[in-house]
TrEMBL record, chain A:
This is Carbohydrate ABC transporter substrate-binding protein (CUT1 family). It comes from Anaerobacterium chartisolvens. Residues 48-58 have a biased composition (Basic and acidic residues). InterPro entries: Bact_solute-bd_prot1, SBP. Transmembrane segments: none annotated. Residues 1-25 form the signal peptide. Residues 27-58 are annotated as: Disordered. The keyword Signal applies.
TrEMBL record, chain B:
Keywords: Membrane, Transmembrane, Transmembrane helix, Transport. It holds the Pfam family BPD_transp_1. This is Carbohydrate ABC transporter membrane protein 1 (CUT1 family). Its main location: membrane.
Length: 556, 315
């Protein structure tokens, strides 16, 4: 019994420790990280600048080297060295990559790497992540401009100037370089820039109810109603007239971003940034959604479903209409297309403002792009690292990553450099196998420059084609308004978090409100709460960021 | 004189202790590994708790973070969510304790009464199965089952219990029930194992003697089975009480949504939101420390009470 007893005590203690541990995270203590360039950098400096200034930097040293590269996304599964593209790049540059990908919660992995000062050579993560600020302020990553000054001036040629200005910190340094950044000076007239934000309807249903105009509240509600009346069920399951993105802890992207852009709501009033949630157009359309619920056109499933449930429903064609990121449902779209080409979702003009201005979806990417790639201060050879980075963002690197090796994955066909038909076919039919075999296109998207690859893109194929082309000419840049949120642990950040928490609860309530009076009451309470916790502090923080951004972008 | 003898006595006792230790050196060596493991992975990291009283920045060492006293605790108690979070945590946990604790005992006792071995094994295996499915998968299944066109609505409508489908997870009033029932369904068979083991350890002679004395099945359950597993029940009860402040994070995480938030926001989820999503590590640690302290107090209290009542306890 004694042994049993102590075992029990042990297990209790262990359980308690685990509780405590899970709260404190990794607590390893360490000295401040050295700000000086690492050893490799010093050696490089001793050698002096290379004599042969001809040709790109990466050509000067093509000996074998393996870099560790952290990708902040657990879904990233591509490997290095097995497919044509990576073999080709290694052959050319001598660089091999060992990708480090979190197996579970990404922030947990990153926090552990940061707190234990063991960041790998390259670090790639979304620009909005808290980790970016932590690494930059903690001097855990090299300023790219310093490395470029020291080892590879070509970096400035390859990088877009306004992108560098955009990411220039108050100390004058640029720490990370983004992918999918839409630098205005590189956007040329007539470039067909896509948007992800779309209003989608199921083609067959939409045609059967007479292709109504859904831009006005009346048209919108009537179309939902007609669809539900004509097609009450899909495969025996009830039809969901309107789908939105997932309702999360911080709100709903379809409402906060897509809908606001469709309504062409200006971000500024009299030259000042303001709270778009107070705009009459936004409230008018939120009331339309409320009305839709009153007419029993909103299914409560949309508040409950997570991404996986939604994807299942999309693949079954359960939604009539959706305000959704088209790229997030591309594979469901293909599945529907294989089943029945009429069942696919097509993009049409969605909810519009009173004067029926065209929808204004955002550029895919925007100014800030998607992820930032950093070179950490732990990097084993920062000279090779910056040269490799420069190569990747240069025209040549973009082409090697996007198209691969000439004759193997691409060739000049009809005067255009493009992927071979067989390669494209595999890409569209079995993406996994394509990644393993070729790994071209955006398999390695870490530094993809959308504007650079545009000229090599294969023509779109149905059903994606229609969705993508809808946005051409409509999509605009909201560059100045990217990355304007205060850091999460600042006073403003805490206020913003409270507002977001509240908003996440409010949005479903607004749609489910029983009457317009109740709706107005909820909105007033929400606005009062914002006043009480001084939300205007967040607005003025954002205003300051916008001013900085505009300067970087050269607007006014 | 008396002093000396006491000292001599204690000395010889120490010597005897050392002798005993050296005789057990292999056993002690094995224990030592465990103790070192605990020191490294459980006790040393406890140093990190102090960030609950500091304004910690993850890129700087803990030691250099400025002290802020009880500010994070005050923030938490002053948070307008505090009452709601605490209510939900306690509500779900107490329900799980009240219903989920006795059920495995009853289940184990009933299983023990099944005479057909094959049937018994079959029931046992089937009841374990849900335990091995992770909550992420099971949560997805629950969402589909309780959705508008899901199987539960289908059955209830066929039975004319409902006229219109109800999206159960969208209604806060059903959330506690869903959380408790799905948790019990998943863990019932698994939790019963320990009681099955305890019952298997009861001397069969007791049952034989009772049968000879003319005891019925119910008599045997109440007079032999239950009293004999009393100790196990008490120990598990103490552990269950101490975990009242914790809810099943995985479960709530997959089942929660903004509509059921008034009933599903619990301490663990809040800590996750603050720590992982908002990077407020100090604040999140303070909340969890508060939780751990309450849990420890509950553990000690429950241990005392059961010791008084049943003479069985953890320590």
């Amino acid at each position: 019994m004694g042994n049993k007893k102590s075992l029990k005590i042990l297990s209790v203690l262990v359980a308690l420790m685990i509780l405590v541990l899970s709260a404190s995270g990794c607590s390893s203590d360490r000295g401040t990280v050295s700000v000086e360039p690492d050893k490799a950098a010093e050696q490089g400096a001793d050698e002096g600048t290379p004599k042969d200034d001809e040709g790109p930097g990466w050509k000067k040293d093509t000996s074998d080297i393996t870099f560790d590269w952290y990708i902040h996304y657990s879904w990233f599964g591509a490997k290095w060295g097995e497919n044509e593209v990576t073999k080709y790049i290694t052959e050319k540059t001598g660089v091999k990559i060992n990708f480090i990908v979190p197996s579970g919660n990404e922030n947990e992995k990153l926090n552990t790497l940061i707190a234990s000062a063991s960041l790998p050579d390259f670090v790639t993560l979304g620009w909005w992540e808290n980790g970016v600020k932590m690494m930059q302020e903690g001097d855990l990553v090299h300023p790219l401009n310093k490395l470029a000054d020291q080892y590879d001036a070509d970096f400035y040629k390859a990088a877009a100037k306004s992108t560098l200005d955009w990411y220039k910190k108050p100390d004058g340094n640029v720490y990370g370089y983004p992918n999918f950044s839409m630098a205005p000076e590189r956007i040329e007239e007539g470039m067909q820039i896509e948007s992800n934000q779309t209003f989608l309807v199921r083609k067959d249903i939409y045609e059967q109810i007479g292709k109504p105009d859904m831009r006005t509240p009346e048209g919108f509600l009537n179309a939902l109603k007609a669809a539900k009346e004509k097609f009450p069920t899909v495969n025996g399951q009830p039809l969901i007239p309107l789908g939105l993105q997932e309702f999360t802890d911080s709100g709903n992207k379809s409402i906060e971003s897509d809908l606001v852009n469709f309504l062409a709501i200006p971000r500024e009033k009299d030259g000042k940034y303001y709270d778009a949630e107070t705009h009459p157009e936004y409230l008018r359309w939120m009331k339309v959604l409320r009305k839709a619920n009153e007419m029993k056109l909103i299914s409560k499933d949309i508040f409950v479903d997570k991404r996986s449930q939604m994807e299942e429903k999309m693949a079954q064609g359960r939604y009539f209409s959706m305000i959704y990121q088209r790229t997030d449902m591309a594979s469901q779209q293909l599945e529907l297309y294989r089943k029945n080409p009429d069942m696919v979702y097509i993009a049409i003009d969605g909810p519009s403002n009173e004067s029926l201005e065209p929808n204004r979806p955002a550029f895919a990417g925007g100014m800030a792009g998607w992820t930032l790639t950093h070179i950490s201060t732990n990097c084993k050879d920062s000279k090779r690292a910056i040269r490799f980075l420069t190569y990747l963002i240069s025209e040549e690197g973009q082409k090697d990553v996007y198209l691969g090796k000439k004759g193997v994955t691409w060739d000049t066909i009809d005067g255009k450099d493009q992927m071979l038909p067989d390669v494209i076919k595999l890409m569209n039919s079995d993406r996994g196998e394509y990644d393993r075999k070729y790994g071209a296109e955006k398999t390695y998207w870490m530094l993809t420059d959308e504007l650079a690859i545009l000229k090599w893109k294969p023509p779109f194929e149905e059903p994606i084609k229609q969705n993508a082309e809808w946005g051409f000419g409509k999509a605009i840049s909201y560059a100045a308004y990217d990355d304007i949120e205060p850091p999460a642990d600042s006073d403003e950040g805490i206020i913003l978090k409270q507002v977001k928490d509240k908003r996440a609860l409010l949005l479903p309530k607004l749609i489910l409100a029983n009457s317009e009076e109740e709706f107005d009451k909820l909105v007033n309470e929400y606005q009062k709460m914002k006043n009480d916790i001084k939300y205007d502090k967040v607005i003025s923080y954002s205003q300051q960021k916008i001013d900085e951004h505009k300067e970087a972008l050269g607007i006014k | 004189m008396r002093d000396l003898s006491v000292r001599a006595g204690s000395k010889s006792r120490i010597l005897a202790g050392i002798k005993k230790l050296s005789r057990q050196k292999y056993l002690q060596g094995m224990a030592l590994i465990g103790i070192i493991w605990m020191m490294v992975f459980a006790y040393l990291p406890m140093y990190g708790i102090i960030i609950a009283f500091k304004k910690y920045n993850i890129t700087k060492p803990i030691a250099s973070a400025p002290w802020v006293g009880l500010q994070h605790f005050n923030d938490f108690f002053g948070d307008d969510k505090f009452i709601q979070i605490l209510t939900n945590t306690l509500g779900i946990s107490l329900l799980k304790l009240a219903i989920g604790f006795p059920l495995p005992i009853i289940f184990a006792v009933l299983l023990n009464e099944i005479t057909s071995m094959r049937f018994k094994k079959y029931v046992q295996t089937v009841s374990y199965l849900p335990h091995f499915i992770s909550w992420v998968v099971l949560g997805g299944i629950m969402i589909t089952w309780t959705s508008e066109g899901g199987i539960i609505n289908h059955i209830l409508m066929e039975l004319k219990v409902l006229n219109e489908p109800v999206v159960f997870l969208a209604e806060p009033q059903y959330f506690w029930g869903i959380a408790v029932i799905s948790d019990i369904w998943k863990e019932l068979g698994w939790s019963a194992i320990i009681y099955m083991a305890a019952i298997a350890g009861i001397d069969p002679e007791l049952y034989e003697a009772a049968t000879v004395d003319g005891a019925s099945r119910f008599n045997r359950i109440f007079m032999i089975t239950l009293p004999c597993i009393k100790g196990t029940v008490a120990v598990l009860f103490v552990l269950a009480v101490s975990s009242i402040m914790g809810t099943n994070f995985d479960q709530i995480f997959v089942l929660k949504n903004p509509l059921n938030a008034p009933a599903s926001d619990v301490i663990d989820i809040y800590v996750y939101r603050m720590g992982m999503n908002s990077a407020r590590f100090s604040y999140a640690t303070a909340i969890n420390l508060f939780k751990s302290v309450i849990s420890l107090m509950l553990l000690l209290t429950a241990n005392r009470v059961t010791k008084k009542l049943t003479d069985a306890s953890l320590f």
